[in-house]
Design brief:
Blueprint lengths: L2 H12 L3 H7 L1 E4 L5 H9 L5 E3 L16 H14 L7 E4 L12 H6 L3 H17 L4 E2 L23 H16 L11 E5 L18 H8 L1 H8 L4 E4 L3 E2 L2 E2 L4 H11 L5 E3 L7 H4 L6 H11 L4 E2 L3 H11 L5 H17 L15 H15 L1 E5 L12 E4 L7 H4 L14 H7 L4 E3 L6 H8 L4 E7 L18 H11 L4 E7 L15 E4 L7 H9 L67 E3 L3 E2 L3 E2 L1 H5 L4 E9 L5 E11 L10 E10 L4 E8 L1 H4 L1 E2 L5 E2 L3 E8 L7 E6 L1
Parallel strand pairs: 1-2, 1-10, 2-3, 3-4, 5-6, 6-9, 12-13, 12-14, 14-15, 15-16, 19-27
Antiparallel strand pairs: 7-8, 11-16, 17-20, 18-20, 20-23, 21-22, 21-26, 24-25, 26-27
Helix pairs in contact: 1-14, 2-13, 2-14, 3-4, 6-7, 6-15, 7-9, 12-13, 15-20, 17-20
The structure holds alpha-D-glucopyranose.
Length: about 725
């Protein structure tokens, strides 16, 4: 930590009473309606932060609006009327947009475009800061292999590399290159393993070995912390027999030790008190003792710290040094944010049109074209196309979960956008009652069914036991298909769904996710070819729910698991009722054009471990060409396989990707540098290592890639 910062922190702490220090560790959800009560508590130095959320599951519940004037009034009380004058942090869940809503983070991951993600979050940060929120509880970077878990939509998918790229881009979008007065402080959450909840049941237990934790779940947090993320939030799940809030091993050894995290740890909603529910504490006082000693720095909303720490210190169960360490971390964030110099909201003009344009560009790049038989898409503007389905007039759900501040009055439905477009789209008398649809089908060259899920079945506390298409939507597809018409499925789902039964009835499938304020404009642009979809899947899509958890980077196994990913023709009969392979693999996505790849070349095929450790590596090249008739973007992906190693390694691991827009006939030469970091893994002792031996390096368009070269570390 910077010496000057250290001195400032120590100077402030030296003047504080124990009660004032404990106040800094306390965050409460207070409604601006109780303004006088809040100001009294702030005046007494009882709060270090206010969470601007009125419920524990802010993702889908209506939230009280935030007024920056009220925030400033509270802040003024803290700065001018409390004895220490320490400014407050005002936190809120700004996950993928403020009044302008961007695609849900899982869809943003599908863009495979970190620069655009960073730009998106810099827009989001402007709106956030302008409303007085100086701390957001994002990015959510929980690896997930299970779309029954509603919170997978908030995260970054199944892959540690994509997760790390997303974590860094979102943190830098909110904070800039480092935490500074122009930042919105970010939160890497939820530490750790939350996405592995058994059965996809939110909040359920997880069992994750250190080996798996370090190689799959930890990398996104390492990238967030290396990007300067201000805070980390613990996770609700029990992991290997303990709550994360009670785990010194996770919070002090792994997070603050191995990852050198210098910010502070905020508990998730009441998760200090939840130690009592876990049976790891007999009461809130014991919970406070366990949590603060484990490395928890700030207590969200349950007042366990505020009500008990003074007594615990006097009883010698918590040292004042432990309290000082937590206060020091919190003051560090407040000082880096410049709150002592500029505690109040600095309003700036925001170009909402520009923000929405960026949101639309993200929606454009997040869409994944899963099927396009006989190039039925893009539609001709003059074709008579009947549009129907439950998402045709929908607006709220297009914004997705965690969009409480989203301005739905600025969202257009797909139907509204079509009516404004110069296309020969027509509608039945009802969007969805299929009897009302059928008489219109005969007039159509093709039918577009806009299907999807409510945002209310995604996000926190919103798991599903099955992720197949809802029965009534499946029935709808069959009834329309029976009339022999071509059908395009537009899928407005937040999570990956199982499409094996639906796919045969659909001539084309366009996955538009829940993509925010401009979702409808983006979908119509893609349907009529003004946008060429370029999204790629950040999670494997199962054929059936029964395959979950399903993910591409699974370890090699006794049976030739490679057939999961197309390397052998032999089918693995692990199920009698389905192939073992996913419906669509990680990294998959079609385009309205085609791309071809040249040979993979490398500057060397052998390297000594010593040279690798010294920073040398393999410089690989490959050419990619647009062999189609129209411009499009290709996401070239680089995977490795550690062929023989002391621990069992995945059949493939993504280690780099590059997205390139190419004009028809255009060719580009791409270079990738494969170094120690990309070849290494955490072994059973927790050491990051590269072992001598052969590595396959694959370069192609998704996890089914078969073109590879073999290199050797000796
Ligand atoms: C919720 C969520 C967490 C959120 C917090 C504050 O329960 O788990 O992601 O940031 O509480 O709303």
């Amino acid at each position: 930590m910077d010496i000057k910062l250290r001195e400032r922190i120590d100077s402030i702490i030296s003047k504080m009473t124990l009660k004032e220090k404990i106040g800094q560790l306390n965050q409460e959800a207070v409604s601006p309606k109780d303004l006088e009560k809040i100001k009294e508590r702030v005046r007494n130095g009882e709060l270090g932060s206010i969470i601007l959320a009125s419920t524990a599951t802010a993702g889908n519940d209506a939230q009280e609006k935030v007024y920056y004037e009220v925030i400033d009034e509270i802040q003024k009380t803290a700065v001018e009327e409390s004895r220490m004058g320490i400014p407050l942090l005002f936190g809120r869940d700004i996950i993928h947009g403020y009044t302008t809503v961007f695609p849900v983070p899982l869809a943003l991951s599908a863009m495979f475009n970190p620069d655009l993600v960073k730009t998106a979050y810099s827009h989001i940060a402007k709106e956030t800061k302008n409303n007085g929120v100086n701390w957001t509880f994002a990015p959510m970077i929980d690896i997930s292999r299970d779309s029954r878990w509603g919170r997978c939509i908030e995260g970054i998918g199944e892959d540690p590399y994509v997760g790390g790229v997303m974590a860094e881009a979102i943190v830098k979008g909110f904070q800039g290159e480092e935490l500074s007065p122009s930042s919105v402080a970010a939160t890497a959450k939820h530490f750790i393993g939350y996405g592995a909840a058994e059965g996809g049941r939110d909040y359920d237990k997880t069992e994750i070995s250190d080996y798996t934790l370090r190689n799959f779940y930890l990398p996104p947090f390492k990238k967030a912390i290396d990007a300067g993320c201000a805070t980390v939030m613990n996770s609700f799940n029990e992991i290997n027999g303990t709550s994360t809030a009670a785990s010194k091993k996770l919070l002090r050894k792994m997070l603050k030790g191995e990852l050198s995290f210098e910010g502070f740890v905020i508990s998730d909603w009441g998760s200090v008190e939840k130690l009592v529910f876990f049976g790891q504490a007999s009461d809130k006082k014991e919970a406070a003792k366990i949590a603060i000693n484990a490395g928890m720095d700030m207590d969200m909303v349950c007042r366990a710290f505020f009500d008990n720490l003074e007594a615990l210190v006097s009883e010698g169960k918590v040292s004042e040094a432990t309290i000082d360490e937590a206060v020091s971390r919190i003051l560090g964030v407040k000082l880096k944010l410049g709150l002592f110099e500029n505690p109040y909201v600095v309003r700036q003009d925001i170009n909402i049109e520009e923000t929405e344009d960026c949101a639309e560009k993200c929606a454009d790049e997040a869409m994944v074209l899963l099927k396009n038989n006989e190039n039925i898409l893009p539609l001709k503007k003059e074709a008579a196309v009947l549009f129907a389905g439950p998402m045709l007039s929908e607006k709220h759900s297009l914004m997705g979960s965690w969009s409480a501040d989203g301005d739905v009055t600025r969202v257009k439905s797909i139907k509204e956008v079509l009516k404004e477009s110069k296309v020969n789209a027509f509608f039945a008398e009802s969007d969805y009652l299929w009897d009302g649809i059928l008489p219109f089908v005969r007039m159509a060259d093709a039918v577009v069914l806009t299907l999807g899920e409510s945002r209310k079945v995604t996000g926190e506390a919103n798991s599903l036991t099955k992720v197949e298409l809802p029965a009534e939507q499946m029935e709808f597809i069959k009834r329309v298909h029976a009339l022999g018409v071509k059908i395009i499925g537009v899928m407005a789902f937040g999570r990956p769904i199982a499409l094996f039964d639906a796919e045969p009835y659909l001539d084309a499938i366009l996955y538009i996710w829940h993509s925010g304020t401009r979702s409808a404009q983006s979908a119509v642009s893609a349907l009529y070819g003004d946008v060429n979809p370029s999204g790629r899947l950040p999670m494997s899509f199962p054929r059936y729910t029964g395959q979950i958890p399903i993910y591409y980077n699974r370890e090699k196994g006794a049976i030739p698991l490679n057939s999961y990913y197309g390397e052998t023709n032999k089918r693995v009969h692990s199920y009698h009722d389905s192939l073992a392979t996913p419906m669509y693999p990680f990294g998959y996505g079609l385009s309205y054009t085609e791309f071809s790849y040249g040979e993979i070349t490398s500057d060397k095929t052998k390297i000594s471990l010593k040279d690798l450790e010294a920073g040398d590596g393999f410089s690989l090249s490959i050419t990619v060409k647009n062999t189609g008739e129209r411009e499009g973007a290709e996401v070239t992906q680089v995977y490795i396989t550690d062929k023989v190693s002391s621990m069992v390694r995945p059949i493939k691991e993504l280690k780099a990707f590059s997205k390139n827009v190419l004009k028809p006939g255009e060719e580009v030469k791409l270079n990738f540098f494969i170094d120690f970091e990309k070849l290494g893994y955490y072994n059973d002792e927790g050491e990051f290592t590269v072992e001598e031996g052969e590595f396959d390096i694959w370069i192609g368009k998704d996890a089914y890639v078969t073109d590879k070269i073999t290199v050797t570390v000796e």
